[in-house]
Amino acid sequence: MMVYTPSALRSAFAALALALPMSAFAETPDSTSGGLKPFTSMAINPEEEGACRVPRPPADLAETAYLRNGYRAILRILVAERHLKAETCDCHLGEFTWDMALAELSRFQTSDNPRLPFKVLDLYAIADALEAEHAEGCSE
Question: What is the pLDDT of residues 13-27, one digit of tens each?
């Protein structure tokens, strides 16, 4: 059995403490020059995000992230349906509220379990398909 003295442990921790901060200087490839650039942020650029994208729901909308994600998917479906019905590429997101998504729960409910009233992945698939249909119509 190997016994570590306090001074040996301090030396090991000091070496580790010196090595760890070096990872803060990690660099990522720069797509324009092929070189490396410093990593600065994981923030999403608002222009890349899209002007008519349903935002993340507020934390007080529902108890769990699963439910909040489901309500967000329902709101995405409602917005996409409005876009398709209106046959316009204008954004109608401003006409919708989180209360509207909550009110539509019965339309998308697949279970009586209050913690799992719907299948979020199925809702995502529906929303993705409707949004793709709308985007296709707007790209022509």
Answer: 555 455 445 444 444
